[in-house]
Design a protein that fits this description.
Elements lengths: L1 H23 L2 H40 L14 H20 L5 E3 L5 E5 L9 H9 L3 E4 L6 E5 L2 E7 L2 E4 L4 H7 L8 H11 L3 E4 L5 E7 L2 E5 L1
Antiparallel strand pairs: 1-2, 2-3, 3-4, 4-5, 5-6, 6-9, 7-8, 8-9
């Protein structure tokens, strides 16, 4: 745009000088005016070239300043090695929590009865044999306070229940029944339990008028009354 403007200005000066020659009738001035115009064209052209070169140089300098890609150092990615190892530690911690799997202090039966965990043999010395018998089948002993009603819990599920004189339990855990009734060890209790489970027979054994036991296998449960 600047060059075009210069040429337009020069042309205007040229025609102005030519007009002055014809209007004033002085042909000698025409030669002098043409040489002066040529000098002005040459000077303006050189100025235009110089300005253009300066503009291009300045433009290149701005581009060089705006493009830092060649001078900036590449960003190095930092790896947090500690964060990489933390998930493994979390997994170990979770494993420890799952392995612990503590029994709840209380459970509530479908009937609404609250059973309390019984595991302290010092506190419940009179129930130490029952606590040991439950531990031998990897079960926990629970009882209703101020009663003789108990239940056996294994893996969160009831596997048996008993009170004074009666017991009902999954036959898979018949060893608990045998240990609980160890006072009948010499009275054929274990053999009769196996017989009842194997044949479904009901077996009654009396020792005298007021003592004895009754065994039956009913609805998938081993039942003992004495």
């Amino acid at each position: 745009m600047k060059k075009k403007w210069i040429y337009t200005l020069v042309a205007a000066l040229f025609f102005s000088a030519a007009g002055a020659f014809y209007y004033e009738g002085r042909p000698d001035d025409a030669s002098a005016n043409e040489e002066q115009v040529n000098e002005e064209i040459k000077s303006d052209s050189q100025d235009a070239v110089t300005e253009t070169e300066e503009e291009e140089t300045e433009s290149n300098n701005e581009l060089n300043r705006e493009d830092p890609s060649e001078t900036e150092e590449p960003v190095k990615e930092e790896v947090d090695h500690q964060s990489e190892t933390e998930p493994a530690n979390d997994e170990k911690q979770e494993g420890k929590t799952e392995d612990k799997n503590e029994d709840p202090e209380t459970i509530v039966s479908p009937e609404g009865d609250t059973y309390h965990l019984i595991e302290d043999k010092t506190k419940y010395s009179n129930l130490a044999d029952l606590i040991d018998a439950a531990a031998n089948i990897d079960a926990s002993l629970y009882g209703i306070k101020n009663s003789d009603v108990f239940t056996l819990i294994k893996n969160g599920e009831p596997i048996g229940g008993f009170s004074t004189g009666s017991l009902s339990i999954d036959p898979e855990y018949k060893s608990f029944a045998i240990q609980k009734h160890s006072f009948y060890k010499d009275k054929g209790l274990e053999d009769n339990i196996n017989l009842a489970i194997r044949t479904g027979a009901s077996i009654t054994v009396n020792f005298d008028e007021y003592t004895g036991y009754h065994i039956e296998y009913k609805n998938g449960r081993l039942i003992i009354n004495h």
